[in-house]
Amino acid sequence: MYYVFEMNTKLTTKFIYFRNEPAGLNIDEWQTGEKFRTPPAEISMVAEDEIPSELSDMLLAKVELHVYSPKLMATMASAGITNLEYFPITVVDQKRGVTRTDYRAANILGSVACLDVKNAELDEFSDGSGYSTVEEFDLLEDRIVPLPGMKSPPLLFRLGEFKFHVIAHQSLKDAFERDGITGARFIPTQDYG
């Protein structure tokens, strides 16, 4: 089974929520599913006066950038996720005067076109160039094939028809639960909306 994998913004009463978009961030660069040709601009996530003060393993933010703790990165590695590119990021809690540099921004490599268009709630752009939203959808799992350089289908990838969605396999969800990873949620594709 596959899920939509994203930050769990319902946890903002328990963990810091970064309301401000990092300066110089071009979020579109992070949603292509492709390697960066040159390293992206250095990013700082700044919390000004947020309450509570605890960081989640997957940072909660207004912008859809995947930022992972060392614990989450270790879980990804133990789950066999190899199609990630990590970049340094600075996490600043201005109110408490705390700066961390052990978190990383994650670029998810690879996209798979496996959307079952017949069984999805879709809003298509008027020019026919793609979809503005994809909800309550099914995947054609026989189309989830190994990415270049891989021997088996990816356990984590971007949905080819709508790269905003990150798709994760049940085994990754199980690994997060086993390791107590915070800040993420896994939503069955059929329930996403």
Key traits:
five-stranded mixed sheet, 2 helices
Quick rundown:
The protein is mostly beta strands. The chain has helices at 70-78, 170-179; strands at 2-7, 17-18, 43-47, 60-61, 67-68, 84-93, 98-100, 104-108, 111-112, 115-116, 121-124, 131-135, 138-139, 156-159, 166-169, 184-188.
The 3D shape can be described as: globular
Secondary-structure element pattern, one letter each: EEEEEHEEEEEEEEEEHE
Helix % is: under 10%
Q: How far is it from the N-terminal to the C-terminal residue, by CA?
A: 18 Å
**What Rg do the Cα atoms give?**
17 Å
Residue ranges: pLDDT <50 for 5 or more in a row?
none
> Widest sheet: strand order?
9-14-15-1-16
- The portion of residues forming beta strands comes to 25-35%
